[in-house]
Amino acid sequence: MVSHSDLSILVLYNPACGDNTAREFFETHVLPRLERSGIIPSAVVATEGVGHAGTVVIDFLKQHEGDVAIVLGSGDGTLHEIINALAFSYTNTTQRAIPFVLVPCGTANALYSSLFTPSSEQDPIASRLSSLEAFIARSKPKSLALACTSLVGGTLQQNSRTVISVVVTSTALHASILKDSELLRKDIPGIERFKVAAQQNITRWYRSRVRLLPILSTGIVQVYDADADDFVPYQGSLDMSASFWYFLSTVNVDRLEPAFRITPLMSRIPSQDVSLDVVVVRPERDPAFTSDTPTTREAFARKTGVVFSGAYQDGNHIRFRYRQDGEIGDYRSGPAVVEYFRCGGWEWVPDEADERARLICTDGTVLEVAKGGKAVCNAIAAIPNGNIECLVYT
Ligand SMILES: Nc1ncnc2c1ncn2[C@@H]1O[C@H](COP(=O)(O)OP(=O)(O)OP(=O)(O)O)[C@@H](O)[C@H]1O
């Protein structure tokens, strides 16, 4: 195992993330803790704006060709920026492993709160230093899975691009929430803004064609079976042409906020393969559905509060089923409200007439599929450029 003195350590924090206290937290807790352990960073840098984190990391890697570690004080967005800079702005010819020490300083910190389950009993400062303590104790870092999404086809050339996410890739309601919540950031800096944006979008449905892609190593798509309380091979059609209320996939995380456990099986039944967990809500599966009208959508929206409540109750929403009259609850039988898949990837082909269906969220950044185009998302184990493996101390 590499000792700390053989590592080049970059300490990097985003002073503008979350509630703007990363600098203070690093000066008061992180840097003194490293010093007390005799660990001397090669550089300590505060990011200066959008994109800066990626530049700093690439410069650091060019200057330090041996083993490195990055102590990162930020939210998920800064990690996302770094990974995308490594994928698309870094010329790399050798295989490299880049371990991150995460210090949660952002708004939601989905990755950190998935890796270190939050507990109200824990000291609030110590609870933010768990990855740092694992690094100091020289624990073995764990590999991060990635999701690679390409926006392809369509007429707008400038929209053809590829993005890598480390937390979430979504369309439908979640992408709408992220788009609208950015406009609320100034007035509502905390995670409350996601709830406000959810209310603004709760009655929307998104028309699209979807194809679920099998896990490469097994050739199958799995679906959660509430009776078995386990994944089983999915026997339904991998192609869906439908209205979607929710369509969201994650890698690495079982929650998007400390208490919002949207893909709980990510941690409860860890995947042995390179895969994504996908949660889908198709309103037309509701036994009470007859036709798509504004009234139907409003009635459905009134019921969906239960789905979100379930996600906040330790991810219980994945057990919910429809009663014959369309009521949603933890019933013993009936169609699943949330379809929960584990697969190798997915394709999303938005209906050309449905503008909002073209939104794709990758780790909080909202992109748009060109009219007539599609998004293709695949789980990958490492950044393809030079095969860079990203790891995290846990
Ligand atoms: N000095 C800076 N001033 C303003 N913005 C910055 C600065 N440094 C970095 N940024 C930008 O801040 C954005 C938000 O950072 P980050 O995602 O880490 O925090 P967050 O949004 O508060 O948390 P989370 O992603 O967990 O919700 C990033 O997109 C990054 O480009």
Task: Provide keyphrases for this structure.
alpha+beta; binds adenosine-5'-triphosphate; 8-stranded antiparallel beta sheet; Rossmann fold; 2 domains; 9 helices; 29% strand; 22 strands; 394 residues; globular; Tumour Suppressor Smad4
Would you mind describing this structure in some detail?
There is one protein chain. The protein is an alpha+beta fold. The protein folds into 2 domains: 4-140, Probable inorganic polyphosphate/atp-NAD kinase, domain 1 (Rossmann fold, 3-Layer(aba) Sandwich), CATH 3.40.50; 146-380, Tumour Suppressor Smad4, CATH 2.60.200. It is 25% helix and 29% strand. It has helices at 22-36, 52-63, 76-88, 110-115, 130-136, 172-184, 192-201, 265-268, 294-312, and strands spanning 8-13, 43-46, 68-74, 96-104, 142-143, 146-153, 161-165, 168-171, 206-213, 222-225, 230-233, 239-244, 246-250, 276-281, 321-322, 328-329, 339-343, 345-350, 359-362, 365-368, 373-380, 388-392. The strands form 4 sheets. An 8-stranded antiparallel beta sheet has the order 11-10-17-14-13-8-19-20, covered by helices on one side. Strands 2-1-3-4-22-5 form a 6-stranded mixed beta sheet, sandwiched between helices. Strands 7-6-21-18-9-12 form a 6-stranded antiparallel beta sheet. β10 and β11 (230-233) form a beta hairpin. The radius of gyration is 21 Å and the shape is globular. The relative contact order is 0.17. Bound molecules: adenosine-5'-triphosphate. Adenosine-5'-triphosphate is lined by residues 14-18, 47-50, 52, 74-78, 81, 106-109, 364.
